[in-house]
Design goal:
The protein has 329 residues and is an alpha/beta fold. The chain folds into two domains: 139 residues, Rossmann fold, CATH 3.40.50; 170 residues, Glycogen Phosphorylase B (Rossmann fold, 3-Layer(aba) Sandwich), CATH 3.40.50.2000. Helix content is 40%, strand content 15%. The protein has 15 helices and eleven strands. It has a six-stranded parallel sheet, sandwiched between helices. Helix 8 links the parallel strand 7 and strand 8. Helix 3 runs parallel beside helix 5 and helix 8 packs across helix 13. The longest helix is centred in the C-terminal third of the chain and has 14 residues. This is Glycosyltransferase family 1 protein.
């Protein structure tokens, strides 16, 4: 099957080539399908020098749906003969709350033009089924487990907590960061937080004047996912009090490097991999209690890791491809 992924990810020199990078992001669909990637808005602007009938060369185009790609998806269906699957790779609130009304109407139009609609959370299926007559199903995001296990052998874990949300001066990158810092202060353990710019260190330091946060390490996001995952491997456990209904890249990162994750079941991977470690996203007391049990009870720690190991195959390349093929067949 000749496959193309259209997204709003920034331009990369590998666009238009066979994509081979295996990381925990949407582009991995192109890697496992032996396909290619283009930035949808740049394609529409003509930056690649291609017309929409170019997509006739592909058996399947996956459109990673964002505000910037809605019109692109409509044009692919109108101007080419290829099969299109809309991939809703953001949290549900992005489409219901943060997308302008005019684009919401266009989005519904696209959902009814596409050949199928793929979602990231089983609880969002009924909502999107109500918006379209097209097939809707959970497909998810394939995870490069074999590669991660090669990069991240078993190590001596350090008594520190990996926080799932980054600290950023940009709103879109700063969701749930404050509640995770508040929980960390109640837990009383050192933490690791991802940042984008030096000024964000000052933000955390100013908060520490009022919250009893112990030692905190800062890691720059611009060093890339490979660096992040190899360093996360050394943390004892993960914490991500996230309010979004979404896939949950962080819990599966944790499972892949053999560390438990405390997070809400609104993250699909969390409720599948770590059902005993699920808490509502504002339940700081519940999160603190679970973290303390993980730290003090070695048997409990090993039990939740073993369970995650038994379930992680659900996110393998083969399982995700099977769900995709079942949806479009």
């Amino acid at each position: 099957m000749k496959f193309c992924l259209l997204s709003a990810e920034p331009y990369h020199p590998d666009h238009g080539k066979i994509y081979t990078i295996q990381q925990n992001n949407t582009n991995i669909w192109a890697a496992i399908m032996g396909g290619t990637v283009y930035n949808g808005p740049l394609f529409d602007r003509g930056d690649y020098g291609l017309d929409y009938d170019y997509f006739d060369e592909f058996d399947l185009v996956m459109l990673a749906l964002r505000q910037e790609t809605i019109e692109v998806g409509i044009k692919v269906k109108q101007r080419s003969k290829t099969k299109v699957i809309v991939f809703l790779d953001a949290e549900v609130d992005y489409f219901t709350t943060y997308t302008p009304l005019s684009l919401k109407a266009k989005m519904v139009e696209l959902l009814n033009m596409a050949d199928a609609v793929a979602v990231l959370h089983d609880e969002s299926v009924p909502f999107f089924k109500a918006l379209t007559t097209r097939p809707v199903g959970l497909v998810g995001l394939p995870f490069p487990l074999k590669r991660v296990r090669q990069m991240c052998p078993p190590v001596q874990k350090q008594e520190e907590i990996e926080l799932g949300s980054s600290i950023s001066s940009f709103l879109i990158h700063n969701r749930n960061a404050l509640i995770n810092l508040a929980a960390l202060s109640e837990i009383g353990m050192p933490g690791v937080v991802n940042i984008w710019e030096p000024i964000e260190m000052e933000y955390v330091r100013s908060i520490r004047e009022y919250l009893p946060i112990q030692q905190i390490k800062f890691r720059y996001n611009n060093l890339g996912w490979d660096h992040y995952i190899t360093q996360a491997n050394y943390s004892l456990l993960g914490l991500h009090l996230d309010n979004r209904y979404s896939w949950g890249r962080f819990p599966i990162d944790c499972a892949a490097v053999r560390m438990p994750c405390v997070a809400p079941p609104s993250l699909y991977t969390q409720k599948i991999l770590f059902p005993r470690l699920c808490v509502p996203h504002r339940d700081i007391e519940g999160a603190v209690a679970l973290v303390k049990k993980l730290v003090s009870d070695a048997d409990f720690y090993e039990e939740v890791i073993s369970y995650a190991e038994s379930q992680i195959e659900l996110f393998s390349y083969e399982q995700c491809k099977m769900r995709l093929f079942n949806l479009i067949s």
